[in-house]
Amino acid sequence: MLERPALSRISPDRLDWARDGADWPLREASRFIEAGGLRWHVQVLGDPQDARPVALLIHGAGGACHSWRGVAPLLARDFTVIAPDLPGHGFSAPPPRGGHSLPGMAAALAALLRRLGAAPGVAAGHSAGAAVMARMALDGMIAPRALVAFNGAFLPFKGVAGVLFPPMAKLLALNPLAARAMAWSADRAAVERLLGGMGGALDAEGRALYRRLFSNPGHVAAALNMMAAWDLGPLGRDLRRLAQPLTLVVGEADRAVPPSDARIVADRVPHAHIRTLAGLGHLAHEERPDTAAHIIRDCASVA
After folding, report:
1. Cβ pair 132, 109 in contact under 8 A
2. Whole-prediction pTM
3. Can you name the CATH fold of 7-156+233-302?
4. How confident is the model over 76-120, as pLDDT tens digits?
5. If 0-12 CB within 10 Å is exposed, 13-18 middle and 19+ buried, where does residue 49 land?
6. Please, are residues 282 and 254 in contact by the beta-carbon 8 Å criterion?
7. Pair 251, 126: CB distance under 8 Å
8. Whether 14 contacts 32, CB under 8 Å
9. What is the pLDDT of residue 197?
């Protein structure tokens, strides 16, 4: 049952469920749950305690559970679906110091799954969410039959971006005014440029929801802190130990994560294969939720 956050706990820099969540996609599936020392916003379609398999859906950095708004209802025909807002993102509370790292995010999400009594039979992650999913599987926090990565961000930035971006993200994250300034500058044109730079074409609803997120200082701060805290080197080395079959879904037009990264990852993971989606960009699962749901369902059935 949905629990509304107490007004005294809502920061003016955070999204307000009563205001910003009034028309949130799949609002009827939303819950607020205390787990691992955090107050989570998570959408649950179905009952984790029934006999149906559980599908865990993990959004990427800067996103929220809305990312799966088209996929979740399609999967809910056959699965109990769990789609959380990662710590600090959307309507979930920010983590304590150190909780923005990849191991920290993985451990926090594992605590939420324990609180729900859910053991995913299949897990899907988008971009950085795919890295969280892989870290959880490698560390024995989840043991699904199959893993599905949509434009998964498993590898560090290359070239000049790899040298400059992490320190820049750290500097921005340390400046308490940076997130607020960036949020205030997230007007319609700026968000359109950002989304357009990822490749592909997102519908009007999706663009409006991302504008809402990027206009909120708390959400922007969470994304900056997450990117600043991540070190993908250990994950890249550990991928050789991944036991589950991994399907790498690649949007051919993705400009955020190079499609060529999928081949590098596939060469490291023992049971990996690539599925390329022609004409789709970084948000391929939002552009074609029917295709994404079909892939997840197919991977869960053949694993």
Report:
1. yes
2. 0.89
3. Rossmann fold (3.40.50)
4. 999 999 999 999 999 999 998 878 899 999 999 999 999 999 999
5. exposed
6. yes
7. no
8. no
9. 85
